[in-house]
UniProtKB/TrEMBL annotation:
<dbReference type="GO" id="GO:0001671">
    <property type="term" value="F:ATPase activator activity"/>
</dbReference>
<keyword id="KW-0143">Chaperone</keyword>
<dbReference type="InterPro" id="IPR036869">
    <property type="entry name" value="J_dom_sf"/>
</dbReference>
<dbReference type="InterPro" id="IPR001623">
    <property type="entry name" value="DnaJ_domain"/>
</dbReference>
<dbReference type="GO" id="GO:0030150">
    <property type="term" value="P:protein import into mitochondrial matrix"/>
</dbReference>
<comment type="similarity">
    <text>Belongs to the TIM14 family.</text>
</comment>
<keyword id="KW-0812">Transmembrane</keyword>
<feature type="transmembrane region" description="Helical">
    <location>
        <begin position="35"/>
        <end position="67"/>
    </location>
</feature>
<feature type="domain" description="J">
    <location>
        <begin position="114"/>
        <end position="167"/>
    </location>
</feature>
<dbReference type="GO" id="GO:0016020">
    <property type="term" value="C:membrane"/>
</dbReference>
<keyword id="KW-0472">Membrane</keyword>
<protein>
    <submittedName>
        <fullName>Molecular chaperone DnaJ</fullName>
    </submittedName>
</protein>
<keyword id="KW-1133">Transmembrane helix</keyword>
């Protein structure tokens, strides 16, 4: 059995060296990287299987060579973002629904009815009422007074929507 494995290994080395001589310098460089990655990957798998390296450590080590390709992959980021955004819009998660409650609108296009609900005013109320309702709620919900940024941003957006409708 050992003789057969030795002959097979010798034949493989002979074929590889014969093809290696026919390669150009650029192809030799690419082939060298492939051989290094394959041997390194096989070594990582062997070490994980024998218990010498933890699986997570091997996974991190396997990802490191892929970092060379990261700049080339980043050029696809806008397409991936656009694809994910269109997927969300199809599902209705990224667009506001008129029948949804306040806070359901995630892309910043608040309706007038939703703005009125947030500020607690009636549609068609006076500009002073909008400003006073905004001021009263902002005093309660401002981040400096125990509120949070999200609520303060929603109050500001509601005020802009209602006052913008009047000036437009």
């Amino acid at each position: 059995m050992q003789w057969i494995l030795g002959i097979a290994l010798a034949a493989a080395v002979f074929v590889i060296l014969k093809q290696w001589g026919a390669l150009s310098a650029e192809k030799k460089k690419a082939a060298t990287w492939k051989v290094i990655l394959v041997v390194g990957g096989a070594l990582l798998v062997f070490m994980v299987l024998t218990g010498r390296i933890h699986v997570l450590t091997a996974a991190v080590a396997a990802v490191i060579p892929l970092l060379r390709k990261l700049p080339a992959l980043l050029k696809f980021a806008p397409e991936i973002n656009r694809f994910m955004g269109s997927k969300q819009r199809e599902d209705g998660h990224a667009q506001g629904n008129d029948h949804a409650g306040p806070g359901a609108d995630l892309v910043g296009q608040m309706s007038e009815r939703e703005a009125c609900d947030i500020l607690g005013v009636k549609a068609g109320c006076a500009e002073e009422d909008i400003v006073m309702a905004h001021r009263r709620l902002m005093q309660k919900l401002h981040p400096d007074r125990g509120g949070n940024d999200y609520l303060a941003a929603k109050l500001n957006e509601a005020k802009q929507v209602l006052l913008g409708k009047r000036h437009a």
